[in-house]
Amino acid sequence: MKRPFLHLHLLFAVRHLCSTVAGRLLPFALLLFPLALSAQYPILPERERARVVDEILEDRLTTLLPQLMRREGIDMWIIISREYNEDPVMRTMLPSTWLSARRRTIMVFYDAGGEKPLEKLAIARYDVGNLLKGEWDINIQPNQWLALVKIIEDRNPKKIALDFSKDYGHADGLTYTEHNEFMAVLPEKQKAKIVSADRLAVAWLETRTEKEAAIYPLICRISHEIIQEAFSEKVIQPGVTTTDDVVWWMRQRVTDLGLETWFHPTVDIQRFDSDNFEHLRTFSKRPSKQVIMPGDLLHCDFGITYLRLNTDQQQNAYVLRPGESEIPDFLKKAFAQGNRLQDILTEKFKAGTTGNKMLLDALDQAKKEGITGSIYSHPIGVHGHAAGPTIGMWDQQQGVKGPGDYPLFTNTAYSIELNAAVEVAEWKKTIRIMLEEDGYYTTDGFRYLDGRQKEIFSIPRKLANVK
After folding, report:
1. Which of 18, 143, 144, 244 is the most interior residue, by most CB within 10 Å?
2. Beta strand residue intervals within 197-281, DSSP E
3. Residue 385 φ/ψ, nearest 5 degrees
4. Distance between CA 286 and CA 231 in Å, rounded?
């Protein structure tokens, strides 16, 4: 066995045990195996997940969406998709048992104003779950587009919002074909009412409800614990384990827990050598695998998806050299600069402030404090790189036109992603303290959903009563 993957040892042991009884227990044993893996995590069975997803969706459509439509001045929102080519917004509105749209699915949300409830209609052959009532009777109107036109004409909205957007891919889900077919049948007087739904779509995607805010911290905790396990002696044997080994351990761990990753994790190394560590090196220029050695500073980028919410976290670990029992002071001091850069940015969070202003104000403050910082933070939620105010990109430190001009709203979540470049005399070069943690902004200010890393992990960890 090349590396100490505990769960693989357990699986082999189960298989060996089952073989001694002619394999009669194998199906039962393998059924218990995932349960044993997930016992330390509060991960729901699939059926319970579906219940939670549907409850959250009902709350969002019934309570949140009407508020957002009125805030953005939209009285009719139409979302159109075909099967397996779903609008990113529509995917977030499908019930748990709908894994894709069906044939052509058309959703219509109409706010008649006053105290009337929001109409939630599906121009489809059937209801979309229990939340959108099917309004197309093919025996009365064989043409689906004309059925949609009748809904519009009967309600005569002031605005008809469609999902097209220059700045947000998330809000640009109306395809060329669907747009053309719709416009071909829509009366001219209604065409004049067409507007972009981009701000409404972004608001829907970025705003979290009370129920979502309640479950999000635990999702971040699960992700944190997987990182802590990966960056420990349970997985890493210095001199043997490679960065690629750790990456695939993380992927497998997530799969074994019945969860998903929304991007392939990365693990990289900074050490006392002549290599310069630029941001691009963590992506296309990163070595495919390196053997992890004592004295290495490790960094990972990792995120999971659970209950339709995503995490995105970057943390750091140091492999102790023989005779070392503590993280070197020069690394602790460097890490503190990364934490301070986080503080500088989150102190700029104020409702109504654009992403670009937060970026530039934070970089200016960092410069005054002698911190060489780079900030590339982003919203997070139903997408990993989510809709909302972009707060810099790693290659756009002067601001991001479009998404960076969008303002900060309350009840929204963010990945505070950045790095501090620190000159380390002991290594005779500049290292980068790369950090990313998920947080939440409300009227009470910004907070981290499950805290943030304040100290570099040591590999191996300290043991109580062992010195």
Report:
1. 144
2. 260-261, 266-270
3. -90, 95
4. 19
CA nearest neighbour of 419 among 317, 310, 345: 345
- The rounded distance, in Å, linking the Cα atoms of 108 and 120 is 6
- Side-chain half-sphere of 1: how many Cα atoms within 13 Å? 12
The set of residues, in sequence order, having a beta carbon less than 8 Å from that of 109 and lying 6+ positions away, is 65, 69, 76, 77, 78, 118, 119, 120, 121
**pLDDT of 278:** 62
Q: Output the pLDDT for position 284.
A: 54
3 state DSSP class of 150? helix
pLDDT of amino acid 326: 95
pLDDT at residue 28, as a whole number: 37
Q: How many CB atoms lie within 10 A of CB 53?
A: 17
Q: What is the largest CA-CA distance in the chain?
A: 82
pLDDT score at 131: 76
How far, in Å, CA of 350 to CA of 27, rounded? 55
Q: Is 271 left (phi over 0), alpha (psi -120 to 50) or beta?
A: beta
Answering whether pTM is above 0.85, one says yes
Q: Cβ distance 267 to 298 under 8 Å?
A: yes
Q: Are 235 and 241 in contact (CB under 8 A)?
A: yes
In 252-267, which positions are buried (b, 16+ CB within 10 angstroms) versus exposed (e)?
ebbebbbbebeeebbb
Chain centre distance of CA 246: 21
> In angstroms, rounded to a whole number, what is the distance separating the alpha carbons of residues 346 and 359?
10
pLDDT of residue 414: 98
Tokens of 42: 């509060």
Query: Is 198 in contact with 165 (CB distance < 8 Å)?
Result: yes
Q: Smallest Cα–Cα separation from 430: which of 302, 286, 273? A: 273
Question: 149: closest CA among 118, 112, 193, 111?
Answer: 193
Comparing CA positions, the residue from 423, 420, 446, 444 lying closest to residue 433 is: 420
- The parts of the chain modelled with pLDDT lower than 70 are 1-39, 100-102, 129, 276-287
Structural contact between residues 215 and 52, judged by C-beta atoms closer than 8 angstroms: yes
- Domains, the chain: 6-32 (no CATH), 53-205 (3.40.350.10), 209-459 (3.90.230.10)
Tell me the sheet residues that pair with 316: 299
Q: Give φ, ψ of 140 to 5 degrees.
A: -90, -45
Which position has the token pair 């394999």? 23
